[in-house]
């Protein structure tokens, strides 16, 4: 079928704005789904509708909101598996044809090491299984998970790159290639998947995308070219750093430690180029210039003030 109407949950979050823009640019009719208690302003472009439902997402309210919708995209944190199951169940009941879950991983949750190290990837892995079971029992329902590598241009500090102070941490020799994506590329991939909903290669599977594949040292050299300055580098033993941060995850410093462990995983287990499901060509996604991306980041007002 042709996807025309799309509901997006998480439009005001980290990834949501980029996905919303890509959907609008691709001429989908978009409904933004929000909690009734949400205080984020409805500053959406003309033609985008906003629907609020009770905070506990009761099934009748979800089913009412999803009536006559062709696709549902979720960009809230992937840890909220219970809510995603509610959403998927309502999607099946109302005839939604394509579900794109809150996957968008720095690393693939099929990785045993990722699941061992970070509970988030257990949640994502198990929810893929839930979607698979739903699609097997409901031929009109399908799903696509997107794995994109690190969100490269969201905040370089997450990747241990302090652009303002010209410093960076490097794992071991910094010579392992890893895929990463800009927010705009991720949004475009989502829109392209919906545009190819009839293509079996997008249905009931995980697709991998990237803006580029580069080593950590490639990235640092690109930032050095963009700034005209040399960066001060701190070498880190990657496995020892991950071990220490995993211990901190168990003792209470959960959020920051988890982000650091994901950083390590995304540096060592995220080269999609030879993976089954690498979908840049399928989706017509052209890789972006690392130099141009780094230049844009350096020229952002927040960086110029540093």
Summarize the structure.
This protein has helices spanning 16-25, 59-66, 81-94, 112-117, 119-137, 183-195, 216-227, 238-250, 254-268, 290-299, 301-304, and strands spanning 5-9, 29-35, 49-53, 71-74, 98-100, 142-147, 150-151, 161-162, 167-171, 178-181, 205-208, 212-214, 232-236.
Walk me through the topology.
Blueprint: E1 5-9, H1 16-25, E2 29-35, E3 49-53, H2 59-66, E4 71-74, H3 81-94, E5 98-100, H4 112-117, H5 119-137, E6 142-147, E7 150-151, E8 161-162, E9 167-171, E10 178-181, H6 183-195, E11 205-208, E12 212-214, H7 216-227, E13 232-236, H8 238-250, H9 254-268, H10 290-299, H11 301-304
Parallel strand pairs: 1-2, 1-4, 2-3, 4-5, 5-6, 6-11, 7-10, 9-13
Antiparallel strand pairs: 8-9, 10-12
Helix pairs in contact: 1-6, 2-3, 3-5, 7-10, 8-9
Domain NmrA-like: 4-239
GO molecular function: oxidoreductase activity
Keywords: NADP, Oxidoreductase
Can you tell me about this structure?
The chain is of the alpha/beta class. The protein has a domain at 5-149 and 181-209 and 273-283: NAD(P)-binding Rossmann-like Domain (Rossmann fold, 3-Layer(aba) Sandwich), CATH 3.40.50.720. Helices cover 41% and strands 18% of the residues. The chain is built from eleven helices and 13 strands. The strands form three sheets. Strands 3-2-1-4-5-6-11 form a seven-stranded parallel β-sheet, with helices on both faces. The chain has a three-stranded mixed β-sheet with strand order 7-10-12. A three-stranded mixed β-sheet has the order 8-9-13. Strand 4, helix 3 and strand 5 form a beta-alpha-beta unit. Helix 2 packs across helix 3 (81-94), helix 3 (81-94) runs parallel beside helix 5 (119-137) and helix 8 runs antiparallel to helix 9. The mean pLDDT is 96.
């Amino acid at each position: 079928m042709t996807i025309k109407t799309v509901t997006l949950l998480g439009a005001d979050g980290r990834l949501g704005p980029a996905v919303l823009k890509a959907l609008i640019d691709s001429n989908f009719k978009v409904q933004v789904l929000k909690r009734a208690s949400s205080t984020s302003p409805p500053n959406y472009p003309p033609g985008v509708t906003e629907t609020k439902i009770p905070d506990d997402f009761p099934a009748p309210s979800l089913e009412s909101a999803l009536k006559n919708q062709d696709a549902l995209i979720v960009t809230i944190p992937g840890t909220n598996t219970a809510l995603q199951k509610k959403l998927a169940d309502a999607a099946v009941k109302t005839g939604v044809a394509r579900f794109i879950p809150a996957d968008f991983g720095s690393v693939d949750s099929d990785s045993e090491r990722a699941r061992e190290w970070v509970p988030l990837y257990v949640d994502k892995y198990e929810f893929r299984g839930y979607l698979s079971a739903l699609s097997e029992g409901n031929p009109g329902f399908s799903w696509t998970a997107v794995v994109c590598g690190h969100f490269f241009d969201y905040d370089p500090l997450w990747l241990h790159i302090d652009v303002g102070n010209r410093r960076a941490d490097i794992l071991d020799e910094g010579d392992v290639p890893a895929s990463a994506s800009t927010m705009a590329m991720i949004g475009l991939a989502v829109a392209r998947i919906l545009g190819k909903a009839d293509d079996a290669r997008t249905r009931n599977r995980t697709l991998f995308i990237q803006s580029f594949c580069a080593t950590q040292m490639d990235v640092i050299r690109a930032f050095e070219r963009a700034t005209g300055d040399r960066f001060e580098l701190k070498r880190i033993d990657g496995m020892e750093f991950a071990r220490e941060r995993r211990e901190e995850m168990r003792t209470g410093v959960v959020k920051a430690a988890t982000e650091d462990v994901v950083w390590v995983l995304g540096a060592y287990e995220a080269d999609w180029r030879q993976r089954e499901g690498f979908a840049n060509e399928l989706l017509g996604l052209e890789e972006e210039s690392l130099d141009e991306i780094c230049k844009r980041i350096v020229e952002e007002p927040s960086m110029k003030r540093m």
